[in-house]
Design goal:
405 residues; 3 domains; 7-stranded antiparallel beta sheet; 5% helix
């Protein structure tokens, strides 16, 4: 009643407080997680998974557990007032069941959870593994169809993700209440299920499996359009809180050289959209943990840049392969830091050649036969991060990171 009054007085509908992104990642089953069902063959149970950190959902509910409802419109929900005020994420309009239901001898569909990573960047994960559909044994006396699905909750960013694994769904229109060929999934807000069927509230749901986007329906009108098929193995649906302070990823890495072959391990914020490595010799990579082979020993500056929807950050570290420190560069000075237009370089030996590279490894400026001290005019460069590559007449090379503002 209060919600209806608010809607009438505001003349506007509440907006969905998450932005949506369709992405992909290799599906990895939760190995070694804590079981929620044990050996129980489940059908219409509700399970509660305790979380090691607080989760703020929809900017309104602070939770320390994740509630999994496996009948009706199953989803991850918090019941703020029994069944007449359901709020939470849902991933289908169907009844699901343990695939052991048909034989009745053992559970074939484990439900488990685990926490990955370290604070303050942990990820809480819950998995429905090898889950089946209640309607299949009822209609066909078989239990062949299945799906694998996980929900991830990110500690720092409070991002929510649906991860889809292998599946087989032969009779979709027999399973989905909407009788569509794909499930209804998204977020339920202030939904009243007291009468056994949703009567009031809002559904924010996904449509168009090719390029999914959020649509809205206000109960008692039920969505007539849903996803046209079950999401394929490796699909990830990401819901990013709009109310959270948007923060670019923290970045870090380590290097393990074996001769000229160096393995790199990224150790920054795990929730990133993409990553780029620059190895200081012209080589680059977009792998999370790459291995790079250098053509010769020497001094290199290796940089990694991580990107998310809030921006990017870069970290650079020096790397020396099979050489002692170059005494001839001991007095090198590069200043100021950051620079506005002129860059000063002094303390280098003899004559050198200079190149300024952007973070894609492309040369933006070069000059040869420089003598100390040298003033370089870089006012034509756009603001950003660059690599300064200096090389003496003997092939000795050194890199410096510079920032143009």
């Amino acid at each position: 009643m209060v919600i209806l009054l608010l809607l009438i007085n505001s003349n506007t509908r509440a907006q969905f407080r998450y932005s949506f992104k369709d992405t992909s990642a290799t599906y990895v089953p939760l190995i070694g997680g804590t079981s929620l069902n044990g050996t129980t063959i489940w059908d219409e149970q509700k399970y509660v998974a305790p979380m090691p950190f607080s989760w703020t959902m929809d900017s309104s509910f602070t939770l320390n557990s994740l509630k999994l409802k496996l009948s009706g419109y199953p989803g991850i929900v918090v019941d703020t007032a029994a069944t007449n005020n359901v709020n939470g994420f849902f991933f289908g309009d169907f009844d699901i069941a343990d695939r052991g239901l048909l034989s009745g001898t053992a559970s074939y569909s484990p439900i488990r959870y685990l926490t990955a990573g370290t604070a303050p960047n942990r990820i809480f994960k819950v998995e429905l593994s090898n889950a089946g559909f209640w309607n299949e044994p009822d209609l066909y006396l078989t239990m062949n169809d299945y799906f694998n699905w996980q929900i991830w909750i990110y500690e720092g960013s409070q991002i929510v993700e649906f991860h889809y694994g292998p599946s087989q769904i032969t009779y979709p229109k027999d399973y989905y209440y909407s009788q569509n060929t794909g499930p209804l999934c998204g977020y339920a807000k202030h939904v009243n299920e007291y009468s056994g069927f949703p009567s009031t509230g809002t559904y924010y749901f996904l449509k168009d499996i090719t390029t999914p986007k959020i649509d809205t329906d206000y109960l008692p009108t039920l969505p007539s359009i849903s996803l046209s098929s079950w999401p394929a193995n490796g699909r990830v649906f990401r819901f990013v809180p709009k109310w959270k302070l948007c923060v670019p990823p923290l970045v870090g890495f380590s290097a393990s050289p074996v001769g000229k072959i160096v393995s790199y391990t990224y150790s920054g914020t795990p929730a990133i959209d993409s990553i780029r490595w620059d190895f200081g010799d012209g080589g680059t990579s977009t792998s999370l943990n790459p291995t790079h082979t250098f053509s010769s020993n020497g001094h290199y500056t290796v940089c990694v840049t991580a990107y998310n929807s809030c921006g990017s950050n870069t970290v650079c570290k020096p790397l020396a392969l099979g050489v002692e420190p170059l005494d001839s560069w001991d007095q090198l000075r590069v200043y100021p830091e950051p620079i506005r237009s002129q860059l000063m370089i002094d303390g280098f030996p003899g004559t050198i050649q200079l190149e300024v590279l952007d973070m894609k490894g492309e040369v933006q400026y070069h000059q040869y036969n420089l003598r100390s001290p040298a003033m370089i005019d870089l006012q034509h460069l756009a603001a950003g991060i660059y690599l300064l590559r200096l090389e003496d007449h003997s092939g000795g090379r050194i890199y410096r990171r510079i920032i143009r503002i």
